[in-house]
């Protein structure tokens, strides 16, 4: 029988493992791999075998003499009975890779570019140095209904992206850092993370919950945002983007290759991706690209007391809490007809039972989505505001621009990396 040098990992599931004397050792329950950045080969480290007594042990690939259609034969019957424990830096094919989403850039499969591809199986191959490596994946894009078999695509591993290896690090040290971060501002957490060695930085970022990691990303330069996002597997990256403010998520996706951005948008919840897609449709130097689609928007029959309660929301940035925008339903952007706005100071001076429709600012003009950033800067300087409404030509509210977002875009691209006071500056006296 010819020697097997290629096999799909899924075929190994449940396969009998025998010693050279044909005694049964157990059955394969998983395959362990070490994912490396392309173009380095991603090696197959070994298999997890469940013995008759249900104990799971690890067998390195070098201990395997042959893989046959029905069974695996070992070089010797002597095996380590130490219980299997996953090591940092390694991934389980069955638990971590099967069913995960990736994006691909195989020039032979252009129809898959910009789509999320689900990993259905992984092909393992023994190379000339007799190491086993990941050679290809079998992937599907959509699962058909009514029990039909999905169309499988075979994709070389070097065209597969979005599976991030777990970083090696001291888990105890990472946990201590993360505990400290919870008492810090996101901007300070971002600075602290980038003061860490690269390996520790990636490990700590991987351990942060999605909400905190999203807050940290928003405090980094767009170049560093993209760099950190690349270290996450693509499904985790989509989850983190959902937690980001839509305008920040749109800016970050604009820094990525179009194919990857399309895949991430596809993996995001449709309700979360819809406002991001709208923002990405505007030219980057316009007000439309700067605005947030989630300001404080209320219907005209809202009372002052109710409006103040909404303004107290701790998740609402202070700049956006400074102004209430009043619209006809629907109140989700793009809204019904925009009626006007009420300043927070005005709300504080009016009776709680007063309707906000009766205290609108009649003189404040809006911004339009295609206005330039310079127009927005002049607008804020003229009217002494920290937040302003953005409407379309049909008088629908599209969102609001906050002065902090405007300043962020007017400063040099790397201003966040330099910090509040660049290192080149000096104090007088």
TrEMBL record:
InterPro entries the record matches: CBS_dom, CBS_dom_sf, Mg_transptr_MgtE_intracell_dom, MgtE_N_sf, MgtE_transporter, PRC_barrel-like_sf, SH3_actinomycetes
A Pfam family of this chain: CBS
Keyword vocabulary terms for this entry: CBS domain
GO MF: magnesium ion transmembrane transporter activity
CDD domains associated with the record: CBS_pair_Mg_transporter
Source superkingdom: Bacteria
A GO cellular-component term linked to this record: membrane
Domain CBS: 291-357, 360-418
Record protein name field: Magnesium transporter MgtE
Organism from which the protein derives: Corynebacterium gerontici
